[in-house]
Specification:
two-stranded parallel sheet, five-stranded mixed sheet, 7 strands, about 30% helix, about 140 residues, Nucleotidyltransferase, domain 5, alpha/beta
Length: about 140
């Protein structure tokens, strides 16, 4: 007696679960790395402070000063006169503008004071100075 083995039917559906998993992993990776790309092109080592708290940079103007004294408005390298002109235009557009100043811990204070002087002369009152959280020292 010969037994007939039942044949299985082919499944013609595409399983999208692995594809969805890959897409979600890529989404998480991009969400984590996107904030890190905002200062691409130059390195700034922020000074440490025990009271440093993370801030949202959305809706703020970002000014960065490198260790060599170069000033960046967003991602653009600017001179003092260009910084003043551009910040005056931003201030006239929105008098409630908020500025986030990131200065390298190795930059000269005269560079920071120069930027602060420009912002004060324009009338910008909302200023945040960026710092990195201080590592807690355990005894």
């Amino acid at each position: 007696m010969i037994r007939k083995i039942p044949r299985q039917q082919l499944v013609a559906e595409i399983n999208i679960t692995p594809f969805t998993d890959v897409i979600l992993v890529l989404l998480v990776i991009f969400m984590i790395t996107a904030p890190l790309l905002s200062q691409a092109g130059f390195k700034i080592k922020l000074p440490r402070a025990s009271s440093a708290i993370p801030t949202q940079t959305r809706g703020k103007v970002s000014i960065s000063i490198t260790g060599e004294g170069l000033v960046y408005l967003g991602k653009d390298l600017v001179t003092s006169s260009e910084l003043k002109a551009k910040m005056q235009a931003v201030y006239h557009e929105n008098p409630e503008v908020s500025v986030s100043l990131s200065a390298d811990k190795d930059c000269a204070f005269k560079d920071v004071a120069g930027v602060l002087d420009i912002l004060t002369a324009i009338g910008i009152a909302r200023l945040n100075i960026a710092t990195a959280p201080q590592d807690k020292i355990q005894p």
